[in-house]
Amino acid sequence: MIHKSVLLKEVIKNLNLKPGMTAVDGTLGAGGHSLAIIKEILPGGKLISIDWDRQAIKNFQKILARESYDIPKRTFPASIKSNISDEHNSPFAFVSLFSGDEVVGYWCGVSENYANLDKILESLKINKVDAILADLGLSSDQIEDPKRGFSFLQNGPLDMRYSLEIEKKTAADVVNNYSEKDLTQIFWKYGEEKYARRIAKEIIRVRKIKRIRETRELVEIIANVVPEKYKRKRLHFATKTFQALRIEVNQELKNLEVFLEKAVKILTKGGRLVIISFHSLEDRIVKNYFLKESRDCICPSKFPRCACGHKKTVKLITKKPIQPSEKEIRDNPRARSAKMRVVEKI
Predict the structure, then answer these.
(1) Distances from the Cα of 268 to the Cαs of 140, 168, 317, in angstroms?
(2) Is 150:143 a contact under the CB 8 Å cutoff?
(3) What is the pLDDT of residue 86?
(4) CA-to-CA distance for 147 and 339, rounded, in angstroms?
(5) Which residues share a beta bridge with 22?
(6) Over the stretch 279-318, which tens digit does the pLDDT of each residue have?
(7) Is 93 helix (H, G, I), strand (E, B) or coil?
């Protein structure tokens, strides 16, 4: 399946982009959003595209070339670690985007966790940016590659890491080493899986016999303990367990919380932050953080006077989340659960 960027027109409209701006795409993925952003901020603009997956950045260089933006042949995915360790050949810098013989803008691809946004921009000597986007969904390339272990529809190693270079712990490590109590908590907390206890108990039973290594094995374990009626629902019966493991392996919710705080601080006055989430856990974090930062006092209502001293930092651009149209959902069923929220720095 060809990856289609979710809410693309809505993202560009709400980022409020202009030529010459500096923007961040915190989740490059298949590159659709980054490409659309570049077209809006040129000439003179700068874009930082971040992704844990080095391959995503390599692929985006090819997309830029197809769009007739020439970049130096030496360019390769930058990471903070390589920037620090290789002072004579550091890739962690902007490269010029050429249109013909003319430099029209600048781009930097960074293979890193977006929660390190402050370190990334510090290395680029950037204090403030005008627009930030994070699309929290998995790209089709990741889902459809069985070697990555994200999909319960194809067999592959039980991995689920966004970055094979940065992350060490795999989903197999979690399944084979966590206690029954911890597995139950993860499946319930991160997957909202009502059969969490049954699934965890069956995992413990099976792993006493052999190590669980493949996605197919985990699907079979889940199938053995959930009711037949549960298997016939529209949502695949393994969806919530796989989601929970992916969140645990990549610490997605913790990283999101860190990223939101850093993103708001780094935005210039009038700059926009756009977040697209795909499940209730993510959306709840985004919604609550945006609400908190759009208010002065956040003391409990029973307090007679403010004791927190909190001052609002943003204004809400979207009181309710923007969701895909029926047409977009027909064209791209994976967009169905997307919710986009937007704030502006004050």
Answers:
(1) 33, 35, 16
(2) yes
(3) 39
(4) 29
(5) 46
(6) 999 999 999 999 999 998 888 888 888 888 889 999 999 9
(7) coil
23-53 pLDDT, tens digit each: 999 999 999 999 999 999 999 999 999 999 8
Quote the pLDDT of residue 303: 84
Residues contacting residue 128 through CB under 8 Å, at least 6 positions apart: 22, 266, 267, 268, 271
**pLDDT of 77:** 52
- The number of angstroms, rounded, from the C-alpha of 89 to the middle of its chain's C-alpha atoms is 29
Residue type, 299: C
**CA–centroid distance for 187 within its chain:** 20
Contact 175, 222 (CB under 8 A): no
Nearest CA among 16, 78, 1, 2 for reference residue 274:
16
Amino acid at 146: P
78: β partners: 110
Report CA dihedral (133, 138, 142, 148) to the nearest 10 degrees: 120
Residue ranges of the chain whose pLDDT lies below 70 = 1-3, 72-92
Can you tell me the distance from the alpha carbon of 117 to that of 344, in angstroms, rounded to the nearest whole number? 18
CA–CA dist 295, 24 (Å, integer)? 25
- CA neighbours closer than 13 Å in the CB half-sphere of residue 81: 6
Sign of the alpha-carbon torsion through 267, 97, 166, 216 = positive
Q: Cα(149)–Cα(158) distance, rounded to whole angstroms?
A: 5
One-letter identity of residue 248: E
What single string gives the DSSP state of each residue in 103-168? EEEEEEEEES-GGGHHHHHHHTT---EEEEEEE-SPPHHHHH-GGG---SSS--BS---S-TTT--
Tokens of 151: 């999909």
What residue type is assigned to position 12 of the chain? I
Q: Are 214 and 157 in contact (CB under 8 A)?
A: yes
